[in-house]
Amino acid sequence: MFIGPVFTREAITAPRRPQFFVARVLLVAALLGLALTAWQVFVGSSGGGELDGPGDLARFGRVVFELLTPLVLTVAVLFSALFSAAAVSQEKSKGTLLLLLLTDLSNSELVIGRLLASLLTVLVSTLAVAPFLLLIALLGGVDHWQIAWALAVTVAAALASGSLGSMLALWREKTFQALALTAIGLVLWLALGEVIASGVLGTPLLGMNADDLAARVSPWRALTAAMEPRWGRAPALFGIDQPVATGAESAAWFVGVGVGLTMLLNAISVGMVRVWNPSRELRATPAGAASSAPRERVIAETISPTAPDESTVVVGKARGQDAAVHHAGGQSRPVWDNPVLWREVRTWAYGKKVLVVKAAYLVIFVVCALATVQTLGDAAALRSAIPPAALPMAPLLVVSLVLVNALSVTSLTGERDGKSLDLLLTTDLSPQELILGKLGGAFWNSREMIVLPLLLCGYLGWVGAVSGWELGVLMACVVVMDVFAAVLGLHAAMIYSSSRKAIGVSVGTLLFLFLGVSTCMRMMLALSNTFDGQLASFLGFIVGGGLALFVALAWRNPSTAMALASFAAPFATFYAIVSFLLGSYSLVGFATVGTFGFATAAMLVPALSEFDIATGSQPTRED
């Protein structure tokens, strides 16, 4: 069988777990809640609470389709990459990947089976969205072929991003390197489409319009083209020639590009899986043996050492043992009072290839910084609802927070998977030394992701794009969110014994907040020009988001502080959105610093008082 028993086992056992059904229900319920919220806003903004006819209903259906379909694409792409990278990294950390390599599984069965097994939940959830989109089509304004092409683009992008995460996880030894490179790769993929569409590389490019070329390589641009309401003739699909939207040609090209990219990445993974794994680590030769000595002679000398002279026997040494067998050679390095912090800062705890991650992040920073400088000269956009500098800075800040969060959560899940967490818990380390050591290591190793965005914010204040007070508020918000992201990663790693769940909940919580912010902001701008009465419309979404955060972050150790932080975060996010669109940036800062600062304290204070870490010593159904 081409897919193999790895996928077969997951397909058989996944329906036995409640999470498999909960994911689909939550996704469709969230979309339905957003659609109902949009209906409340739309009817309230139409005046008198009545619609003027089928035209308004069709307009509502089109706007909701254009608002929610990008959300489905974003969720599918991000979680496909996250799940595939986390699944392979967990197999490597626990050593089960080596056991799979010892079986008679072929490379394709191992790589493709593991990939499809990790993407099963995402693909099934995407399929569950189809009936919801078809219901929207009943309102008018949306054609069934637009829905078909939008789902095709989503599936192709999800497969390509999942293949990218799987390949990088098979290549890199450390979990953080795999997650970070995957996130940076996705950002560079989307940035490539935006750079092409901007015309910086030339118009036309490769014999075609820049927008058409961008739609053929970028999932975001391809989805936008697939949702175009214009009509025309598109290429036949599977021999069926039907009238579809003119943007379907670009969508069809992207589906082909996505499938080709998926095949290429998986071909590389299949060909190199046994070369990359296990990693080729240099092993020290026995004392006195030359480095160029043949392997057989070294083994022989190690197994059958020469009998020592009786006159040179020293008490305290084993027979045939060198006196310096336990000596590392060279000058020993002093260890700080906090050995956890010393290891995180003074050693390559996350591998030397972390420099590749930092170099890739530097590329993203340069692109976003240049885009920020360019937007500052656009005088026409300075009076828009969203400041022009916020558009290129938003992805940079999101990537920075995700990388800080990923580094924090993997710093503890790596200890658990490597069986060293139990050893740390048996030592005389205090909870403060362990938690603060891991936090300090996360901040030190991700210092570029923290300092560079702050420097870019300082540049905005230096050129006068923001006032001194607004600059202080902006930098305070960035620092507070960095600390929140790091503490959130450690909190998720402590309450979940499964690395995949810990990484998924930690990164997923950040993505939930960011996606909720962007979706609500786009909904407000698209459906209403005023903010009167919108709190009642978004109340259901706020309560549902708070309940979801409480279940994800406080199910193991519920507390009043965590409940307050969970339900306050969505409300503060809504308040910050409205204040941001109204230009009240001070209120945005107060809401962000107060809410997420309190949430940080609610997670950090109990962790510093005592060890309460899920070690995963007992087998669970999810493993």
Automatic annotation (TrEMBL):
<feature type="transmembrane region" description="Helical">
    <location>
        <begin position="147"/>
        <end position="171"/>
    </location>
</feature>
<feature type="transmembrane region" description="Helical">
    <location>
        <begin position="588"/>
        <end position="608"/>
    </location>
</feature>
<feature type="transmembrane region" description="Helical">
    <location>
        <begin position="115"/>
        <end position="141"/>
    </location>
</feature>
<feature type="transmembrane region" description="Helical">
    <location>
        <begin position="355"/>
        <end position="377"/>
    </location>
</feature>
<keyword id="KW-0472">Membrane</keyword>
<keyword id="KW-1133">Transmembrane helix</keyword>
<protein>
    <submittedName>
        <fullName>ABC-2 family transporter protein</fullName>
    </submittedName>
</protein>
<feature type="transmembrane region" description="Helical">
    <location>
        <begin position="449"/>
        <end position="467"/>
    </location>
</feature>
<feature type="transmembrane region" description="Helical">
    <location>
        <begin position="503"/>
        <end position="524"/>
    </location>
</feature>
<feature type="transmembrane region" description="Helical">
    <location>
        <begin position="473"/>
        <end position="496"/>
    </location>
</feature>
<feature type="transmembrane region" description="Helical">
    <location>
        <begin position="536"/>
        <end position="555"/>
    </location>
</feature>
<feature type="transmembrane region" description="Helical">
    <location>
        <begin position="21"/>
        <end position="43"/>
    </location>
</feature>
<feature type="transmembrane region" description="Helical">
    <location>
        <begin position="562"/>
        <end position="582"/>
    </location>
</feature>
<feature type="transmembrane region" description="Helical">
    <location>
        <begin position="389"/>
        <end position="409"/>
    </location>
</feature>
<keyword id="KW-0812">Transmembrane</keyword>
<dbReference type="GO" id="GO:0140359">
    <property type="term" value="F:ABC-type transporter activity"/>
</dbReference>
<feature type="transmembrane region" description="Helical">
    <location>
        <begin position="251"/>
        <end position="273"/>
    </location>
</feature>
<feature type="transmembrane region" description="Helical">
    <location>
        <begin position="178"/>
        <end position="201"/>
    </location>
</feature>
<dbReference type="GO" id="GO:0005886">
    <property type="term" value="C:plasma membrane"/>
</dbReference>
<feature type="transmembrane region" description="Helical">
    <location>
        <begin position="63"/>
        <end position="88"/>
    </location>
</feature>
